Amino acid sequence: MFVSPTKGSVTLEDMILDLHAFVQADPDAQYKIVIGTDSHTTRKYTTLITAVIIHRIGRGARFFYSRKNSRPLNDLRTRIYKETELSLELVDVLNRKGMDQLLSQWPLEIHIDIGQQGETKALIQEICGWVTSVGYEARIKPLSFGASSVADRFAE
Predict the structure, then answer these.
(1) DSSP 3-state assignment of 6?
(2) What is the bridge-based pairing of β-strands 137-139 and 46-56?
(3) What pLDDT, in 10s, does the model give residues 25-66?
(4) Residue 61: its pLDDT value, please?
(5) What distance in Å separates the CA atoms of residue 93 and residue 86, rounded to the nearest whole number?
(6) InterPro entries per the record (predicted)?
C-alpha cells in the first residue's frame, strides 16, 4: 500500500494509474521521477519510508509513500544500504507493473540520505557507485529532497 496526502491509502496499481494521469493532464510538460527512502530507528524497530515523486518541472509535483517496519537497524552503514536497496527494488516493481514507459521517458533519480557532512560522507562513493552501476542517477544531500525531506517527513 502507498499513501498520498491528498488521496489517502492506495494500491500500487492505483498509484501507477494516478502517476500516468498526472502526466496525461499536461503531456507537453517536462517531468522528473524521484524515488528516495529514509528511516528512523528506535530500540524496537526501524521504520523505512520510501517516497515516489513525479515532478512536473516548474509546475508542481505529486508524491506517494510506503511504510515498512523491520528489526532495529542500528548500524548506519546497514541502514543506508537498506534504504538504497528499497529504493532500487521499488524501481524494479514499478517497471514490472506498468511504469516502464514513464520511467524510460523521463529522468529517474534515486535520492539517498547521505552527504558531504557527517558520518555518511564515507559512504558516498560506494552507494552512488551502486546506484549508477544499475543505470540510475544518484542524488545526495543537499539535492536528495526525496529522501531527506519527503520520506524523512513521514519516517518518525
Answers:
(1) coil
(2) unpaired
(3) 999 999 999 999 999 999 999 999 999 999 999 999 999 999
(4) 95
(5) 10
(6) Phage_KVP40_Orf299
Nine-digit cell string for 13: 496499481
Beta carbons of 80 and 148 less than 8 angstroms apart? no
- For residue 104, the model assigns a pLDDT of 87
Closest by CA to 61, choosing from 28, 34, 37, 101, is 34
Give the Cα separation of 129 and 138 in Å (integer): 8
Helices (H), 97-143: 100-105, 124-133
CA-CA distance, 101 to 125, in Å (whole number)? 30
Across 71-100, average pLDDT: 96
Per-residue pLDDT at 23 exceeds 80: yes
Average pLDDT value for the chain: 95
The Cα 22–Cα 18 span in angstroms is 6
Range of the domain at 7: 2-153
**Helices 124-133 and 76-94, packing angle to 10 deg:** 20
Distance between CA atoms of 65 and 4, rounded to whole angstroms?
7
Q: What total number of domains does the chain contain?
A: 1
Q: What is the pTM of this model?
A: 0.94
Are the beta carbons of 80 and 102 closer than 8 angstroms? no
